[in-house]
Amino acid sequence: MFRRPVVVRRAAPLLGAAVVGGAAYHAGKSIARNEAQGASQDDALASMQAQQDQLAAQQQQLLQQQQMMAQQQMMAQQQAQYAPPTQAPPSPAPSGMTDEKISQLQRLGELKQSGVLTDEEFAAQKAKILAS
């Protein structure tokens, strides 16, 4: 009898399983990393959207303030346009100092300096001259 040679087959190396397992590990890790980045990107996008919303609200407030200021200026111009003209202040009343009164006061001053009139008499006479 003729014998066939026995061929010993070795089991498939575990290398293939390791490659598949390693590839799956790295793929899972990559997916997890991408998801984490996606989540952080989503957070960043949400933050940017919130900032844009806040800026839009601020711009809206500024626009409203500018419109209010423009309305106030227009109203002020209209009021100034239709306001009655301001009148010049009245001229001061004449002081009533005539040349005659000035000469009388000068004579009173001379009398006081010469000692003929006391301070009280001088003040009384001066008041009479200025009141007339």
Description:
The structure is a single chain. 0% of the residues are buried. The chain contains three helices and no strands. With 132 residues, the chain is mainly alpha-helical. Mean pLDDT is 77; it is low at 15-19. The chain starts with 14 loop residues before the first helix and ends with a helix. It is 73% helix and 0% strand. It folds into two domains: 15-81; 99-131. It has helices spanning 15-82, 99-114, 119-131.
- The overall number of domains is 2
Radius of gyration: 55 Å
Write down the secondary-structure element order: HHH
Kindly report how far apart the N and C termini lie. 172 Å
Helicity, in percent?
Answer: over 70%
What characterizes the major β-sheet? none
Number of helices: 3
Which parts are unreliable, with pLDDT below 50 for 5 consecutive residues or more?
15-19
What proportion strand?
under 5%
**SS-based class:** mainly alpha
Write down the overall mean pLDDT.
Answer: 77
Element layout with pairings:
Layout lengths: L14 H68 L16 H16 L4 H13 L1
Helix pairs in contact: 2-3
Could you give a quick summary of the protein structure above?
Helix content is about 75%, strand content about 0%. It is mainly alpha-helical.
Tags for this model:
132 residues, mainly alpha, 73% helix, rod-shaped
